[in-house]
Amino acid sequence: MKWRHKKFTFMVIPDANNSVMRFQLSAVILVIGLIMTVAILAASITAFLLYRGNSGEIGELKQQLSSATGDYEEIIDHKDEHIDELQTDLTDLSEQAKKINIRMQDIKGLESQLKEMVGIETGDSVKTKADGETTSADTPNEDEQFSMDGGTGGEELPVTPEEMGLLIERTRNDFLSLTEQIEHMKPELEQTKVAVVKQQKLLAVTPTIWPTDSRRITSTFGIRKDPFTHRATYHAGLDIGGVTGDPIYAAADGTVIDAGRSDSHGNNVLISHANGLRTHYSHMSKILTRIGTKVRKGDIIGELGSTGRSTGPHLHYEVMINGEHVDPRPYLKATRRSN
Q1: Domain span holding position 24
Q2: Per-residue pLDDT tens for 39-76?
Q3: Which of 80, 95, 119 is the last residue of a domain?
Q4: PANTHER family this protein is in (predicted)?
């Protein structure tokens, strides 16, 4: 087409003092320029219309994003609070584990005291103080024990993840240790219970108490100078001084096999216990039992006196094992009230 070869001249007239500027453009370039200008205008109008149409949605999306951001921040805050609560609970749990461990040691101490009370041998791990309290190698002393009831202070520092991890591990180990202790303690306590019952039965028939309220020994067991002949003789028992009429107690459970009077022993009672043991009570002012009576440890069987071959009010007390006289002193371990 011929119009493509046509040229158009454009003149630019500045102010009056400057020369006129002329330039020519071919028809093709001019058409292309117009097309690009129209395209740019069309694209701008389209973009404007699209933005205007989606501006509401963009605003809503911004609001949703802002709301979601706030929710996430709130969740993070709650998470931090929850972590603090868990850390506090873990600290409390750790303290409880320590206190439970102390109580477990107390139980072991009580078990050892119980064994000692009935004469069962105990290990060296738990020791008894003079006032009856117990100490153990695993039990903190008074300086190491603590209570949250007292005053506290000091600088508060944040807990590091490493420190919290160590606390978790220590608490877990504490509770595992407590579980093991409880599992070991169950059969041990059962064995202790059986041993205590057995020992109680044995103690009941063993003459372990003083047969009088008096503790004044006037003559010991063994060879001595006879108060009447002043010659060396064998004294088969123990003389305990007292006041006429003082009660005389059975030293153990048993059966009265003799209750009467003789020239040497005066009014006297013979009691048979288990395991070949017998006890003999002489010089009574009064007999308060009879042959065949079943007596319990601590029962009153007579009153102290000076009958028979005696120089004054006292109890002549004998202990025999399978017919052989033995020293009663090792058996005198308790009072009538603590048998």
Answers
A1: 2-80
A2: 888 888 777 777 666 666 667 777 777 777 776 777 77
A3: 80
A4: MUREIN HYDROLASE ACTIVATOR ENVC, PEPTIDASE-RELATED
